[in-house]
Design goal:
The chain is an all-alpha fold. It has ten helices and no strands. The radius of gyration is 22 Å and the shape is elongated. The relative contact order is 0.12.
Length: 240
């Protein structure tokens, strides 16, 4: 709390020094405007639309990245074939993916696609690293004692890989949120958070820009906290 108060005071001081609401509004103006927006149905509809699409893209990336990493660890030729594609996805800017997606897809699917291509490399790299770090002696022992494949997957691989997937997913959900909203802004997708930011920029409504930005930060933080809580509960359940 003291740290938050410190930065709010810094924000207030910088706004006072600049002295222009067009460039930087004060925390009071920002939070007042955020409360005003939160009283409208359109605000929550935009959040629900954006959140739903980004979560879909994130979950698709989580599933696809895990499967691709498992296949890559099992088949070295497949790994050599898929790695350039994953590296490319990791290197290409969000703006380029957004423009390509606008040409190929319906704008309503933009956030899903961009969240997917942003998160997939993170999941893939971490999961593959986790699989590769599995103790070979445990695998050899399982082979000697003819342990069923299902038990090898869940008792050996899963326990080793789970922390890697959890770390990647926790980081990836933040990236999905930011990249998805950026895509909506560039693509000007109606009824979304990105479109509200775009409209605020067009009309030079700095208070709205800051209010929506604060909302995005709070929502991103809430998503990451919720995901960490789910993972912690699952971990406690497995121990029990």
């Amino acid at each position: 709390m003291p740290v938050l108060l410190f930065w709010l005071l810094v924000w207030e001081a910088v706004a006072a020094i600049i002295g222009s609401d067009l460039v930087l509004v004060t925390p009071r103006v920002t939070f007042t405007r955020l409360v005003e927006l939160a009283r409208t149905a359109a605000f929550w509809q935009s959040i629900a639309t954006t959140l739903g699409r980004i979560l879909r893209g994130f979950l698709l990336a989580l599933i696809a990245g895990t499967i691709l990493a498992a296949l890559s660890a099992r088949f070295k030729t497949f790994f050599k074939l898929i790695l350039p594609a994953v590296n490319t996805m990791n290197a290409v800017p969000i703006a380029s993916f957004t423009i390509l997606a606008l040409i190929a897809f319906n704008p309503s699917n933009l956030a899903i696609f961009v969240a997917f291509v942003t998160v997939l490399p993170i999941i893939f790299y971490n999961t593959h690293k986790g699989i590769e770090s599995t103790d070979p002696q445990l695998l050899e022992m399982a082979k000697i004692f003819r342990v069923p494949a299902r038990k090898i997957i869940f008792k050996i691989y899963f326990k080793t890989v789970a922390p890697y997937i959890a770390a990647a997913a926790t980081s990836g959900i933040g990236f999905a949120w930011k990249s998805g909203i950026a895509a909506e802004l560039i693509g000007q997708v109606n009824g979304t958070i990105g479109m509200n930011l775009h409209a605020a920029r067009i009309w030079l409504n700095t208070a709205d820009v800051f209010a929506w930005t604060v909302a995005i930060v709070l929502l991103s933080y809430a998503m990451e906290r919720a995901f960490r809580l789910i993972l912690r509960r699952r971990k406690n359940e497995n121990r029990a």
